[in-house]
Amino acid sequence: MTLLRRVTALAASFFPLLFAPAFADSDVLWKIVHDKCVVQTAPCLSVNTAEHYAMLKDLRGVAQFLLIPTDKITGMESPALLDPATHNFFADAWAERDDVNARLPHQLPRDGLSLAINALQARSQNQLHIHVDCISADARAVLKADADKIATDWAPLPDKIAGHEFTAIRVKGETLGDFNPVLALAKSLKDPAKEMGDHNLVVVGANFADGPGFIVLTDVATLGMGGEDVQDHSCAIMH
């Protein structure tokens, strides 16, 4: 069997489970990364052993990738995320944006790329994963209009996005650098150990009047509404 056929067969054996009903195996992502990717890379596109994560193409969408830690970290509620020694996975996800661009006819504009983690009650898998994909046209329009109203302290976003009433902050810079969105959210909560799991967390590239940066969004998930709702897996903004 050729390498391509082996990879295809391996992927086929795992991927149907990823999109099965919510009552299916919630550890599929962990099994893919731990049992396969860290051993032989495939079906992941790449594995960064230094930063402890892998990049996996999601079957949904033309260009959606998942950044998945290679260590066992269940999700937003994980105590590991509150440890300053844990890698800044959002910074890593932004650095891997070329994986998304490679699937598109031309490079996404800065404010067209979004990184999203769904809250505990809005996810189906019990392994942390960041959805790396195009932002929806509606979400992009709202954030473009509100960008220069967003401050460096958490405050309600003036407008809803996909039914979400987000709280937002701005971050300046070409990259996230040492700014960790997870720790920034934790600092804003009274009891992070208990509250983090209820939160969606989203990072979107931005072009502010005074230079490039990011908009960070969060809200408490309700009715299964996840941070991924700001994304468009068909990547219509590229058409």
Automatic annotation (TrEMBL):
Membrane topology according to the record: Single-pass membrane protein
Enzyme Commission number(s) of this protein: 3.6.1.26
Keyword match rRNA-binding: no
Pfam family membership, one: CDH
Main location: membrane
Pathway participation: Phospholipid metabolism; CDP-diacylglycerol degradation; phosphatidate from CDP-diacylglycerol: step 1/1; Lipid metabolism
SUPFAM superfamilies: HIT-like
Organism: Rhizobium lusitanum
Keywords annotated in UniProt: Cell membrane, Hydrolase, Lipid biosynthesis, Lipid metabolism, Membrane, Phospholipid biosynthesis, Phospholipid metabolism, Signal, Transmembrane, Transmembrane helix
InterPro entries named in the record: CDP-diacylglyc_Pase (IPR003763), HIT-like_sf (IPR036265)
Catalysis performed (reactions): a CDP-1,2-diacyl-sn-glycerol + H2O = a 1,2-diacyl-sn-glycero-3-phosphate + CMP + 2 H(+)
Gene Ontology terms describing biological process: CDP-diacylglycerol catabolic process; phospholipid biosynthetic process
Subcellular location field: Cell membrane
One GO cellular component term: plasma membrane
A molecular function (GO) term: CDP-diacylglycerol diphosphatase activity
Signal peptide region: 1-24
Family, similarity comment: Belongs to the Cdh family.
Gene3D superfamilies: HIT family - CDH-like
Class in the EC hierarchy, top level: hydrolase
Superkingdom in the source lineage: Bacteria
Protein name according to UniProt: CDP-diacylglycerol pyrophosphatase
